[in-house]
Structure formats: structure tokens, C-alpha cells
Amino acid sequence: MSKPSLARGTRDFGPEQMVKRTFIFDTIRRTFQRFGFQPLETPAIENLSVLMGKYGEEGDQLLFKILNSGDYAAKLTEADWQQDARQFTTKISEKGLRYDLTVPFARYVVMNRGTLSMPFKRYQLQPVWRADRPQKGRYREFYQCDADVVGTSSLLCEAEIVMMLHGILRELGLTDFTVKINNRKILTGIAEVIGAQGQEGTLCVAIDKLDKIGKEKVLAELIERGFSPESCAGLEPLFALASEQAPFAELRSWLATSDVALKGIDELEEVWQLVEGFGLENPQMQFDVTLARGLSYYTGAIFEVKVNNVQIGSISGGGRYDNLTGTFGVPGLSGVGISLGVDRIYDVLEELSLFPDDQAITTRVMLSHFDAAAARYGLKVLHQLRQAGLNAEMYPDAVKLKKQLDYADRKRIPYVVLIGSEEMQSGKLTLKNMQTGEQKSLTSEEIIAELKR
Amino acid sequence: MSKPSLARGTRDFGPEQMVKRTFIFDTIRRTFQRFGFQPLETPAIENLSVLMGKYGEEGDQLLFKILNSGDYAAKLTEADWQQDARQFTTKISEKGLRYDLTVPFARYVVMNRGTLSMPFKRYQLQPVWRADRPQKGRYREFYQCDADVVGTSSLLCEAEIVMMLHGILRELGLTDFTVKINNRKILTGIAEVIGAQGQEGTLCVAIDKLDKIGKEKVLAELIERGFSPESCAGLEPLFALASEQAPFAELRSWLATSDVALKGIDELEEVWQLVEGFGLENPQMQFDVTLARGLSYYTGAIFEVKVNNVQIGSISGGGRYDNLTGTFGVPGLSGVGISLGVDRIYDVLEELSLFPDDQAITTRVMLSHFDAAAARYGLKVLHQLRQAGLNAEMYPDAVKLKKQLDYADRKRIPYVVLIGSEEMQSGKLTLKNMQTGEQKSLTSEEIIAELKR
């Protein structure tokens, strides 16, 4: 009998982790709902025809593929055996595991566009799977928490994302964070203005590293990648802007010759005004001209969230895309969305000790008993406590009190009710606070009142 | 561009279904927690070495198997190609999808037995996957909701399962249900007493059909399967008992010569007494000597729940097993558990119109606006509503009021706030009840008070 093990890159979440993860999920879900987003769940298994070609060559390889069921090999021919692995795979596998929540969402919108009322606001909290090499902080199965609006290009949606991020992070107890914002159109415009039209991809890869490697090395990289010295000189204003919070006027004068850049600046400025209109207390948002997030996808605003007092990558990212469903033959649906990474948020809250102690999903009180009569007596009390909405349990076996209290301790149950012959006679039970050791003699009704406080 | 589709046997759950499913999941989860069960989540992907051989030959075939990642075919030899499909599969697939929640739970207990405090009470609400042929009501991806206690043989656990089932079903609004109970030991004893020792499997398959085919046909089937006429005659008392609610005395006299049967009856009777001790109002439990549930697994109590006023199979089942983790080399851990089927519960609640209208996860109020100034004015109101904990949204685009109200209607938003120039001047907004059409002129504080009522 070999010892059982977890598949590489996967995890169990035991009770203690689940309590903490539930705190995160509940906070995110509640805030999404508060902003009018509706829940959606899609299956873990999708047809490979839906998934393939949506995440680039590398993504296709990182898809978990499922063997066809039944006698999948029966129809294979000699010729099939001799094909290369990729073609062979298509003969034995037609399904795969969800790789993100965006492509299944696009599929859902396309398949239900006749009945969906637009704009459609959905959130989705589900695991995704990637056959990445597992390493610290990178798993093969992990949750994504997405909220998207499609069917409108209103910038109110961008402003709402800023509001929602502030709401979620503050409800999680985070105070020192920055919502970084850029606009794809500004990046396009910069490339135009410096005479490197269409090169914004290369430009972004380089300026994305500004924080880490500094201005000189960024310029060196651009030269190496074929940018002219004139283009590099044209970037001067960018380095001056990079540290300012909302330098829209400076941007306008620098990029005055690019229509697309001006459009991007207009959009950004409108988002700032809308957030101001909401009356958000102490906005923690910052324009970041170096923010890119895999350009190919986004067409307008780009978001990323950084926690400032913890060494960790971004905990959230998103942006506007103008063609979510184009790949499924339905062009022209604009949308904007945000995705939150639960694993990183977990690590941040752990490091900052922000998880609340007292969660509603754990047991609040345990009944202990000295003998069978006490256990029998306790049943009615137990039923009463539960009917009052309290999470309660009774130690199931007839063991010494010490062992019962140890169990309560290990399970971090804050209160224990002691039932012995004296208690049964008087009807006054002993309520013990497991943290302070304090004991009180109370009726079951008084115990309920005390614990519900 | 081909039209995208769902993989066979899988489903999307759109907002309306999600609201209803959430009602079911929340009710189950809350009740599990109220009884002191703690949450556990295990990965969707398990090593096939963990899954194979646990569900019988048929189960092995119904496991979804995942292709090894990377260049899985590179190391295959000519000899591998020529092996039969089953052996070939082991060369290209080492992982599979979770088939139920019990085997992963057993794996978790074995892997963490050094740190788990026993008895360990866990609940788990997660999807499972089976490569079954899809048909009405049978899916390839579906949720199970399990609660189990391991590490104790106390019959309090059985009684708690009865309590928990009553709690869940009544909170769901169900009134006419029956928790059927049997004990594996009684079935073993009956086979002993009628001289068909070890034949309880065949016996159960036959008497399981008593309801449908009647006594004569049950006996005919037993004769056909090799039971002697004497054995069949010995079954006479069973048919008399089958319709009684808790005929323990009759059982005792019939099965007096079988120790194991008497043990089973003692256990059952104790469960009945414990439930009585809890003071459960109007217990809906019934002894059912024909209840078997795939005997191989269970060693004590067996449960099943039937909804009486709906034509549907059982919505829940479970029982006690004495060797959960034996298959992973850790024998002797007794446990008892219950599993609820969300899809059938959904169908039952739908048929009986028991889903509540008003769920907390939907939008409570939408802000509409006549022009840009009104929209701008509405931002602060929107922020206020949300900060008061209300789910609120504003229609994002500048369109006619009619279109905004249509959106609210389709999304079943019960209240709309109308903002126009008059409203902005007076500070009194118009709150419209979308169901009655009634309109009130209120300040934003008054609106909050009204909607929170």
C-alpha cells in the first residue's frame, strides 16, 4: 500500500485555511454584489475547440487536456501513431480544463446573447488550471475572482472598478495600497509621437522595468531592440511624468500631436472625475505610464493593484477590451473587467496579520459532560443553542473532561458548557470562557443571550 | 468560425440559477456549521493512484483522466503502442478528476492524521466529475455536499445526522419528507436467520424493489437467484414489518438468534432515543428494512431521504463505515457521513415553488437619470446606498428612461430611483417600486431607511 499524495502543484485547504479563504471570498463576493454584479458559474471542463488558440502558443501547451472517455484508442490507426504529438493529441483528447474565467465568460455571452440583458454585469469566483511548472506561490490549480461588464463603453464602469477595488481592499483591512491606472491608447500615442509607431509592445516591455533597472538601462534596452536615438530622446518627458499622480496637462502638451493619445487622456481624466463625483474618501489611485499588462488584449483603461507595505506582485489586474467575443464570431462587444488573486491576497493578509479572529463559520460553544446522564441532559440544550442560530457541538464520546476540553482547545472553540449532576439539579449550567478561564453559572437561555452578544 | 458549445453533460449556471443554487448551498453550509462541522476543500485533480480501484471496475472507467503535460508521447515505445488501451493509458495519464468527495477526504485524513484532532468533523461542498453517459438529470460535472465525522463510533453522530437533515430540509422549506434509516447489521442478521448467510447482497437487491413490484415478485426473484423456499418462507416477518415506523420489538423477536442483528437493533434504537432526547419537533424518520445503498461500503447505520410529494429519487444518502482509510493503509478509523444532491434538491424546490423571491445577492435598487448632470448627481447617492450595505447600481449609459427601466425590469431590480432636474433642486429623489408602480419623494437617507426595512 503506497502512501497517498497530492498531485504536484495542487493543495488541500484544511479548516483553518478555509476559514481565512472564506473571509476573502465573502468580502469580494459581497462587494461585487453591492455593485450590481450577478453570479455566473461555468463548467470546469470545456471543449478544446473553445480553449485552444485563445492564450497563445504557450497557453495551448499549458492547458490540461482530458483523455476521451470510453475506448478512446480503438479507432486509432497506424498513421495516427506516427503523427507528431500535437496532432496525435487531437485524436485522443477533445476536452480540457478551464484556463481562465474570461474565455468561458465570452463563450457564455455568445451562446446566450439572445436572452442576456445588456449591459451584462457578471462576477465569477472559480478555480482555473494551468500545467505550469509548480514553484513557490505558483500552483496548477488556483482560484480567480473576476468581475466584468460587457455591452457598454461607458467610463462609469472604469470608475466603478476603482470604487470596487477600494471597497474590497478596505473591507479586507488593507490601507496602504495603490490602484495603478494607465490607458492603452496613451501607450499607442507615445509610440506614435516618438516615431516608433506600432512598437508599443517593445516599448512597454522596456519601460515596465523602470522601477527596477532605472532610466539608463531602459534606454539601453530600447536601443538594443532597434529604437533610434531620436525615439529615445523623445521619451524624456515620460521619465519626468512617471512619478506624478495624475499629470494630465503635462501629458496633453507632450502628446498633443497624437489623436489616439489625446483620446486616452480624455478617458483617464473622465475616470478621475467620476471617482471624485462618487466622493470616495482618500482615493488611492495613481496614473502609471509604465503599466502595460500584456498589451494584446486591452484597448482602453488598464488597472493593477499594488500593496505598498508587502513585497509581493500585484494582487489584482484588469482593463477594457473592445472585442471580448470576436474570437467566437460576435464582434463589437466592449467590456471592462477586473480579476483578483486570492492566493496573493491571502499571503498579504497573513503577513500583515489582518485575518479576523472570530469568524462566524467556526464552532462557538461545545457541551461537555461527566457521564451518560449529563450527555443525555445536554441534548436538549444543544438543540436549543442551535435553534438560536449558534454553532454548537457536544463531544460525542464518554471520555474524561480533560480530553473533551483539549478537543475544544485544539478546535479553538471559545466557550464550553460543563454539565454535571449539580448543574442538572439546579438547571444552572457552567459556561467556561476558554481564553480567560472565567466560569459563570447560567441557565441555557442566559447562555444563549451571553453568546449572541 | 464555429459556434462555441458546452462540453457534453456540463452546464453553465447563469445569474437566475446561481441565486437559487446559492440559497441551497448557503442553507446546507450554515446547518453543517451549526453542528460543528468544519470546511475542507481538496483539489479537483488527484493522482490516479489515489482514485483507481476505489470505485470498482465501472468507476475506474468513469474517471476522467488527464493527459500528462509536456511532450507526453516522447518516451513512448513501439511496445507501448501495441499494449491494450488500459495499459497504454497508464503511460500517458497519471492524474484524474475527483470522482466523489469521500476518497479525497480519506486521503486528506491519512496525510494529516498526525495533526488532525479526532473526532474530526468536516464538510465539503465541491463538484465531482464522472464520464457517465449524460441524460436527463444526470450530468458529468455536478456538486456533492458531504458532511462526515471520523474517529468516533458514538451513535450521537448518527442522531446528529438525523437532526441535521431535518434542519436543512426544513430551512429549505420542505415539510413532507422522510428520513429512512436501516442498519447494515440487521440485513446481515436477516440473511443469517433465514439460512442465507453472506447472501445479503442478493437479498437486498430483491427487497429493495418491494415498493415497486410487490411481495410475490420479490420472492420469485429470490427463488430464481438460488434462495431456498425455506429461506423465502423465513422472510415472512419482513413483509409485515416493512410498513411500520420503528418496529424494534418485533425485529428483536424475529431475529433473536442473530447477535449481529441484535447489535444492529440496539444501535437503531439508541439513535431513536437520542433524537427523542434532542426534543426534535415532529420527527420524520422511518425504519426501512429494505434500505441497502450499495452494501459493500457501510457497516452500521444507513440513511436515505425521500421527498414524499415529488416524483424523484432520494435527495440524500449516507451511513456509517468502519474502515474509511483502510484502503490507504490506515485501518480502524470509524466514521459516519451524509451526502446531499444539489441538483435533485433544486428540482424539488422548483417543482414546489419553494425558492424565496427576495435574495440578498441581487441588486436592490437602480439609479436612473435623465441627463449627464443627473448622472453626475447620482454618483454620490450611489456611493451612499452602497456604504449603507445596499446592493445598488446606476445605468451606465445615457439612454432614454424607458430603456433604463426595461433593464431594471429584466434584471428584476425591485426599486428604481429617478433623478431629474426637479429632484436635484429639491434634494428629494423619486423612489419607484417596480412591482406596484408606487412612487415616493424621499431624501437619500429616507430611501436607505425605506430599503433597509
TrEMBL record, chains A, B:
<dbReference type="InterPro" id="IPR036621">
    <property type="entry name" value="Anticodon-bd_dom_sf"/>
</dbReference>
<keyword id="KW-0648">Protein biosynthesis</keyword>
<dbReference type="InterPro" id="IPR033656">
    <property type="entry name" value="HisRS_anticodon"/>
</dbReference>
<dbReference type="Pfam" id="PF03129">
    <property type="entry name" value="HGTP_anticodon"/>
</dbReference>
<feature type="binding site">
    <location>
        <position position="130"/>
    </location>
    <ligand>
        <name>L-histidine</name>
    </ligand>
</feature>
<dbReference type="InterPro" id="IPR041715">
    <property type="entry name" value="HisRS-like_core"/>
</dbReference>
<comment type="subunit">
    <text>Homodimer.</text>
</comment>
<dbReference type="InterPro" id="IPR004154">
    <property type="entry name" value="Anticodon-bd"/>
</dbReference>
<dbReference type="GO" id="GO:0005524">
    <property type="term" value="F:ATP binding"/>
</dbReference>
<dbReference type="InterPro" id="IPR015807">
    <property type="entry name" value="His-tRNA-ligase"/>
</dbReference>
<keyword id="KW-0547">Nucleotide-binding</keyword>
<feature type="binding site">
    <location>
        <position position="144"/>
    </location>
    <ligand>
        <name>L-histidine</name>
    </ligand>
</feature>
<dbReference type="InterPro" id="IPR045864">
    <property type="entry name" value="aa-tRNA-synth_II/BPL/LPL"/>
</dbReference>
<feature type="binding site">
    <location>
        <begin position="100"/>
        <end position="102"/>
    </location>
    <ligand>
        <name>L-histidine</name>
    </ligand>
</feature>
<protein>
    <recommendedName>
        <fullName>Histidine--tRNA ligase</fullName>
        <ecNumber>6.1.1.21</ecNumber>
    </recommendedName>
</protein>
<dbReference type="Pfam" id="PF13393">
    <property type="entry name" value="tRNA-synt_His"/>
</dbReference>
<dbReference type="GO" id="GO:0006427">
    <property type="term" value="P:histidyl-tRNA aminoacylation"/>
</dbReference>
<dbReference type="GO" id="GO:0004821">
    <property type="term" value="F:histidine-tRNA ligase activity"/>
</dbReference>
<keyword id="KW-0067">ATP-binding</keyword>
<feature type="binding site">
    <location>
        <begin position="297"/>
        <end position="298"/>
    </location>
    <ligand>
        <name>L-histidine</name>
    </ligand>
</feature>
<keyword id="KW-0030">Aminoacyl-tRNA synthetase</keyword>
<feature type="binding site">
    <location>
        <position position="148"/>
    </location>
    <ligand>
        <name>L-histidine</name>
    </ligand>
</feature>
<dbReference type="InterPro" id="IPR004516">
    <property type="entry name" value="HisRS/HisZ"/>
</dbReference>
<feature type="binding site">
    <location>
        <position position="293"/>
    </location>
    <ligand>
        <name>L-histidine</name>
    </ligand>
</feature>
<comment type="similarity">
    <text>Belongs to the class-II aminoacyl-tRNA synthetase family.</text>
</comment>
<keyword id="KW-0963">Cytoplasm</keyword>
<keyword id="KW-0436">Ligase</keyword>
<feature type="domain" description="Aminoacyl-transfer RNA synthetases class-II family profile">
    <location>
        <begin position="1"/>
        <end position="396"/>
    </location>
</feature>
<dbReference type="GO" id="GO:0005737">
    <property type="term" value="C:cytoplasm"/>
</dbReference>
<dbReference type="InterPro" id="IPR006195">
    <property type="entry name" value="aa-tRNA-synth_II"/>
</dbReference>
